Amino acid sequence: MPSLLYFQILNTVVAFLASFAGFTKLVGTLYPITGYLGFILIGAIVISAFRMKAIKKSVKTKKLADENLVIIEGN
Prior knowledge:
Elements: H1 2-18, H2 23-74
């Protein structure tokens, strides 16, 4: 897993360099970014819930249509 090792090393170097920016400035920059990312995540979850509901409804409708087709063919 060399790619994971490279990612860990890069992440450590970036965090070390960011520590020189000062805690107040770092928190003042990162806190709003994580807040906006949270809003995006909540939006994605809401959209996903609506999509899943639509998919379940279409699957249920298709099952009903298939059952009706079988009933019609049986007559």
